[in-house]
Amino acid sequence: MRTAIAAFAAIAFAGTAALAAPEVGKTAPAFTAQTAAGKTVSLKDFAGKTVVLEWTNSGCPFVKKHYESGNMQKLQADAKANGVVWLTVNSSAPGKQGHVDSALAAKEMKDWTFQPTAYLLDHDGKVGKAYDARATPHMYVIDGKGVLRYAGAIDDKPTANPADIKGAKNYVTAALGDISAGRAVASPVTRAYGCTVKYPDA
Asked: How is 32-62 classified by DSSP, letter by letter?
């Protein structure tokens, strides 16, 4: 069944241009991007591995909820320990809230002690638009065959309150578990929540 991604953030999407969305169950959009460390990486570099894409913006209270609590770092560590590639993506354009250059990205990683496989600087928004990423955080899981298997929220508690993490159903953890077990992802598409991605002006 074709399952179009209808994963819109719950907050403030007025004015967001309609974009062609990738489809869960279909090949994930290819991309190439620069990391904060100045390396060029492409999705094809991780063929055979499960890949998580996480859109971020350190000024977003919904992102702070998951980083200041340590929740996102734990997810990253647990995923990497299981051989998963975790790519954090910042699509805030220069001059926009949340934009980081390499130095600021390194500071964020140090201050928040997060350690993705790579931190991608998507200044022109090409990667974000290819995935129709609209929120921070907005989460995607791609299996080892390059098929998009999950798109949407990090969990089922669409608030900025860290206290709500406890008891929440984490959709990313669930999707990774389903993929690892060879099962269909039980909740392949959910509604992302958070702040808008600050793309360049059209």
From this structure: EEEETTS-EEEGGGGTTS-EEEEE--TT-HH
Give the CA-trace dihedral at 42, 43, 44, 50, to 10 degrees: 140
> In this structure, are strands 139-142 and 51-55 parallel, antiparallel, or unpaired?
antiparallel
77 sits in which H/E element? helix 71-81
| Per-residue pLDDT tens digits for 12-46 | 343 344 456 799 999 999 999 999 999 999 999 99
Say whether the peptide bond before residue 162 is cis (omega within 30 degrees of 0): no
CB 188 within 8 A of CB 22: no
Strands (E), the chain: 3-4, 23-24, 32-35, 40-42, 51-55, 85-90, 118-121, 135-136, 139-142, 148-152, 195-196
What pLDDT, in 10s, does the model give residues 64-102? 999 999 999 999 999 999 999 999 999 999 999 999 999
157: Cβ contacts below 8 Å, ≥ 6 apart:
164, 165, 167, 168
Q: What is the amino acid identity at position 125?
A: G
Q: List, in order, residues 6 or more apart from 181 with CB less than 8 Å away.
A: none
Give the separation between CA 58 and CA 108, rounded to whole angstroms: 8
